[in-house]
Amino acid sequence: MLFSDRETTIIRLLLDNEDGLTRDDLIKNLQVSKRTVYREVASLDNSLARLQIRLVKQDNRYQLVGEAAQMAELKQQVQQQPQQQVFDVRRRQNALTARLLLTNDVVTMQQLADEFNVSVATIVQDLNAIEPIFKDYRLAISRKKAAGIQAVGKESNRRRVLSGVLNSEINEYEFFEYLEHPKAQAQQLEYSTRYFIQLLDQNLLKISFQAIKGLQAAHFNQLADSQLQQLIIVLTVSAMRIQARQSLVELKHVDQTKLFKDQRLAIELFKQFPEAVRTHVNMLELAFMALQIQGMSFAVPKNIMLENYDLVLSYRVRNLIQEVSNQFNWDFRQDDVLFQDLMAHLSAALKRSYSQIPELNNPILQRIQTEYQNLYDIVAHSLTHVFPDNHFVAGEIAYVVIHFASSYEKKVQKTSLSALVLCANGIGTAKILETRLRRNIPEITHFTVSRVLDLNNLDLSQFDLVFSTIFLPGFPMKYKVISPMLLANEIKEIRDDIAQHYSLAAPVTPPEPDSDKLAQKTQDFQTAYQSMRAANDILENITVQDLTNSADLLTTLTQITTSLDGVLLTDPEEVARLLLQRMEKAPVGIPNTPMALVHTTSDLVKRPFFSIYNLSHVLPITGMDGQPVQLKRVLLMVGPAKMSIVENSLMGKISGSIIENDLNLEIYKTGTQAIVYQLISSLFLDELHMLNRNEVASQ
């Protein structure tokens, strides 16, 4: 528990005077007015309640009342707590923001000035400085004449800003160390981290941590340290507000049908809380928490054949990559990893656009805007053009830039030492840092990128070097704090350190026994053969044919599936119905073309199949951009419900290639069977080479 300086002084006075002190005694010792004493006593009483200690007044004397163990703990805390700790301006303003959002009561300027040990004039300046973040989230600082000030606005927005402030000010390493060992770490925390952590109800914080930790392996294992910390803080803040009877009564822009899975997770989390919280959790609370969870989930299906693949988003992401490539004069279109990363990131970003938590004072995002200013401006403009209905805050744009910057910086070099890279800001930032280390420090052989939360699972003795993007107070090894941008002076310092402390010799790799190599080559051949066979089966069935079709869409689809009956599928009417159902679920028309990518998977389909059908009668459908498309050419893609990894990759390669560039698009739009075959065989060859490289790398 963290007390203000005046509260600490009062506690020490009362502990030294077991018979209690009068109001006049306190006035004399504190050298303040009677009014200030009343205010400080009321504030202290609330603070002590968390330790199950009461401040009572008997016979005009104030006394502390509590169990011996609690009194001993209080005495230890005030003895160890340093006095006259002060914030810098930025942290004080964030502390003031949190202070206002944590209470629904009116507080006076003088009260805040006393609390932060500054003048009333300084508090006025701070209020003016923090007002923009309130306005950004449709909150307001209400100034009541002769009474004080109060934060007003929707409860959901209050929680978002409060959680954002706390998350931005708390060091991830100290946060998780404190949660794992609260008593041992409490007094070792940096003052600012300790202050902001102690704003949270410690019991509810502990429950939140344990609840999320219990589900981490199954549901949150891919989250970065900063995301896990944010989720724990949001859950704790929500529980605190619910316990204070400040439940949500309104939550806009929520599609309940898309939240079912994450609402179930929210239910599991809230089930861990005491009845005082649990019984007041309504559907809006579950939806709010589900939005936070959903906004952090970066996993999306990578194969168009899967039922929940977002074809519209894939079209927009391709357009985004195309626009950035054109304006930045660098071809990003061939980087499949970039496409998949952007699919995952933007899928989550679009979901959290109405639940975004502010990310304040993040030097990494600020440096991204500086180091990649031109790329940042291009990405920001392209996002606005490709996603006109969505608003992207500066921090979100910077995260998208990280993916492009990672692709731009990508270069692989072989090196010699082993390094651990600790990055609390997620895999995108880690990729940039690892890429720059690989390129600029050729002496390093192996990299392990880890979250702070996973440190206990690592054998630190296996690493020659440790790099971190955040400070690690109390970390048991020598480490170097570096920027994700890896500045020139940092590169020089690392090289000098390696030259001074490490003697590099080429590692000796023991030769593999001949029998092992022979067995592995046999396995490699079998794998390559199966992959080639799967590719050939798809290629041999590709056709481009004309179809005299009906004016009805379902009838047309049935005509196509009936032509495949027996050889490729069974029950053509049902497969046609599934194709139509998929088209109704999400648009499949390719914008500015007469084509549509009509696709589905089913147990009724025997093997993967792709072909093109030219229709005699044009059919009106909806395009991926929401605009009408006059369908003249059907790109049909069907497959079994369960396909092998190779089959999934090959079919995904076809779908991804359609709008990858103008030449491909033109081939699918007007190409003959021979030309389409040539394109897809070339795509398959590239994909099989990549799959083979991945197989070798994993051995």
From TrEMBL:
<feature type="domain" description="PRD">
    <location>
        <begin position="308"/>
        <end position="414"/>
    </location>
</feature>
<keyword id="KW-0804">Transcription</keyword>
<keyword id="KW-0808">Transferase</keyword>
<dbReference type="GO" id="GO:0009401">
    <property type="term" value="P:phosphoenolpyruvate-dependent sugar phosphotransferase system"/>
</dbReference>
<feature type="domain" description="PTS EIIA type-2">
    <location>
        <begin position="537"/>
        <end position="683"/>
    </location>
</feature>
<dbReference type="Pfam" id="PF08279">
    <property type="entry name" value="HTH_11"/>
</dbReference>
<dbReference type="InterPro" id="IPR036095">
    <property type="entry name" value="PTS_EIIB-like_sf"/>
</dbReference>
<dbReference type="InterPro" id="IPR036388">
    <property type="entry name" value="WH-like_DNA-bd_sf"/>
</dbReference>
<dbReference type="GO" id="GO:0006355">
    <property type="term" value="P:regulation of DNA-templated transcription"/>
</dbReference>
<dbReference type="InterPro" id="IPR050661">
    <property type="entry name" value="BglG_antiterminators"/>
</dbReference>
<keyword id="KW-0805">Transcription regulation</keyword>
<keyword id="KW-0677">Repeat</keyword>
<dbReference type="InterPro" id="IPR013011">
    <property type="entry name" value="PTS_EIIB_2"/>
</dbReference>
<protein>
    <submittedName>
        <fullName>Transcription regulator, mannitol operon</fullName>
    </submittedName>
</protein>
<dbReference type="GO" id="GO:0008982">
    <property type="term" value="F:protein-N(PI)-phosphohistidine-sugar phosphotransferase activity"/>
</dbReference>
<dbReference type="InterPro" id="IPR036634">
    <property type="entry name" value="PRD_sf"/>
</dbReference>
<dbReference type="Pfam" id="PF00874">
    <property type="entry name" value="PRD"/>
</dbReference>
<dbReference type="InterPro" id="IPR016152">
    <property type="entry name" value="PTrfase/Anion_transptr"/>
</dbReference>
<dbReference type="InterPro" id="IPR011608">
    <property type="entry name" value="PRD"/>
</dbReference>
<dbReference type="InterPro" id="IPR013196">
    <property type="entry name" value="HTH_11"/>
</dbReference>
<feature type="domain" description="PTS EIIB type-2">
    <location>
        <begin position="417"/>
        <end position="506"/>
    </location>
</feature>
<dbReference type="InterPro" id="IPR002178">
    <property type="entry name" value="PTS_EIIA_type-2_dom"/>
</dbReference>
<dbReference type="Pfam" id="PF00359">
    <property type="entry name" value="PTS_EIIA_2"/>
</dbReference>
